[in-house]
């Protein structure tokens, strides 16, 4: 088959006969293609679960003890469980939108935005694009901040161990952010999700490692008896915080928990890596259950043990609360695991932005070699890697801008809370619910329609108050911060 004929079949997205077929590749070899004419997908339940765990168990887990301290035992645990149930439910709705109009045999939607366009039309496409890509970009900034905080913690730990507990071991986070950005310059050249599976698996293992260490350290502190004061309602007005601080911190805690469950914005992209059989939506629902249930278990243990250990004085980042003393090597290892995990998570969240921009330019300028030509760097049997000039420049610019913005706004809890609040309602709840209603043709005013709309409205209120609390936190933090100079 000539290149022209093959290209036509790719554009139509439907190979005659369905399923997988062997077609002649342009280099004279044979290449397996999926039903849409693209290279056969090889993702499984376990690789997609690894992608989800990589995306979900991130820096959000480190702030859960602080969130529990603001909400207390009752509201803290109930809030975690409610967020997990809502996230799993709406994610299950979203998996059916990968293909449309039929969730099993319909046409593939390769991205979250493509699913919105296919199910809701162009009128809501712009809103979705703004919500998704702003949140993905913000997540890249948040992960840069978190990774640099962990790198800074390693330096502090080693400094105290070497010079004594009374030494001045304050460091600026700027140099660590720059270092994280340099590594991302190289990782960002991996073309797509299909070449990220190994990084996601490594990152998922790292997330388990530092979560287990945080749990172990919290348990050791509880067993030792040197714990803080806890209560059913969290921080006490007049003792720990003022009445205004209680309100703002409670709002911000909701945003932090929402951020800890943010992955719906990349669910469709992860689902697009799965094999055609069994049906992608069935596999993705199982992967979502594995991912959400696993992370919720970790979150409950980590948040509750952290709160029990530190009480109402729980730190924003639980690993910094154990001091930078002994066992310094264990805390160093935990923070190194965080850094490795975020190296992968940064890519998982950034790849949809990379793909959207590159696909846009390729569609507009299909004959421009700047956008289409690949220069082979490694071409071995087990590993192939090539570089595209446009991809090199655009992705490098993305990493540079996200790094600079992280340097200007290095506020861990405030940024996480804001990102969680901005992304939770529209991307995790509103669009999945609206697409499900459209796909299933649920009539307005029916019982099911009213229940879905009530769920969406309640989640909107949660996102709104969380955003307000986080913005207030950022404004307060800016009063005490000077970029490139402040050390901590």
From TrEMBL:
Disordered, as annotated region: 1-21
Keywords (A to Z) from UniProt: Amino-acid transport, Cell membrane, Membrane, Symport, Transmembrane, Transmembrane helix, Transport
A GO cellular component entry from the record: plasma membrane
Top-rank taxon, per record: Eukaryota
GO MF annotation list: symporter activity
Amino acid transporter transmembrane domain ranges (all copies): 42-474
Keyword Cell membrane listed: yes
TM spans (from-to): 45-65, 71-90, 196-217, 287-308, 328-349, 392-412, 418-437, 449-471
InterPro entries in alphabetical order: AA_transpt_TM
Location within or outside the cell: Cell membrane
BP-aspect Gene Ontology terms: amino acid transport
UniProt record similarity statement: Belongs to the amino acid/polyamine transporter 2 family. Amino acid/auxin permease (AAAP) (TC 2.A.18.2) subfamily.
Protein name as catalogued: Amino acid permease 1-like
Origin organism lineage: Eukaryota, Viridiplantae, Streptophyta, Embryophyta, Tracheophyta
């Amino acid at each position: 088959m000539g290149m022209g004929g093959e290209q036509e079949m790719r554009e139509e997205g439907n190979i005659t006969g369905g399923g997988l077929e062997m077609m002649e590749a342009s280099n004279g070899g044979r290449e397996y293609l999926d039903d849409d004419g693209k290279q056969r997908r090889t993702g499984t339940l376990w690789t997609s679960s690894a992608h989800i765990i990589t995306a979900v168990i991130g820096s959000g887990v480190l702030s859960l003890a602080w969130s529990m301290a603001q909400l207390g035992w009752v509201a803290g645990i109930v809030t975690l469980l409610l967020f997990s149930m809502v996230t799993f439910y709406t994610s299950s709705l979203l998996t059916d939108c990968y293909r449309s109009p039929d969730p099993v045999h319909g046409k593939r939607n390769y991205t979250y935005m493509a699913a919105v366009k296919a199910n809701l039309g162009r009128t809501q496409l712009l809103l979705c694009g703004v919500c998704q890509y702003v949140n993905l970009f913000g997540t890249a900034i948040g992960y840069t901040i978190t990774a640099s905080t962990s790198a800074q913690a390693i330096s502090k730990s080693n400094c105290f161990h070497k010079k004594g507990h009374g030494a001045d071991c304050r460091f600026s986070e700027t140099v660590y952010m720059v270092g994280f950005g340099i590594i991302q310059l190289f990782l960002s050249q991996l073309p797509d999700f299909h070449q990220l599976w190994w990084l996601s698996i490594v990152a998922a293992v790292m997330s388990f490692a530092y979560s287990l260490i945080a749990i172990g350290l919290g348990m050791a502190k509880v067993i030792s008896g040197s714990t803080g004061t806890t209560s059913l309602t969290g921080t006490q007005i007049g003792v720990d915080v003022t009445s205004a601080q209680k309100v703002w911190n409670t709002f911000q805690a909701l945003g932090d928990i929402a951020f800890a469950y943010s992955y719906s914005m990349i669910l469709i992209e992860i689902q697009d890596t799965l094999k055609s059989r069994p049906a992608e939506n069935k596999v993705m629902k199982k992967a979502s259950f594995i991912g959400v249930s696993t992370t919720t278990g970790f979150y409950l243990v980590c948040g509750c043990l952290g709160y029990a250990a530190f009480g109402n004085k729980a730190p924003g980042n639980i690993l910094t609360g154990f001091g930078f003393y002994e066992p310094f090597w264990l805390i160093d290892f935990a923070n190194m695991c965080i850094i490795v995990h975020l190296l992968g998570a940064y890519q998982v969240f950034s790849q949809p932005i990379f793909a959207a921009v590159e696909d846009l330019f390729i569609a507009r300028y299909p004959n421009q070699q700047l956008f289409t030509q690949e220069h082979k760097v490694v071409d071995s049997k087990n590993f192939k890697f090539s570089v595209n000039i446009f991809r090199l420049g655009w992705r490098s610019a993305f990493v540079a801008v996200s790094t600079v913005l992280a340097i200007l706004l290095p506020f861990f809890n405030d940024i996480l809370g804001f990102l969680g609040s901005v992304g939770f309602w529209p991307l995790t709840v509103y669009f999945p619910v609206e697409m499900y209603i459209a796909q299933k043709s649920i009539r307005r005013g029916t019982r099911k329609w009213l229940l879905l709309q009530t769920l969406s409205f309640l989640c909107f209120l949660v996102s709104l108050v969380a955003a307000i609390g986080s913005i207030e936190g950022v404004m307060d933090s800016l009063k005490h911060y000077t970029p490139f100079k402040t050390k901590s």
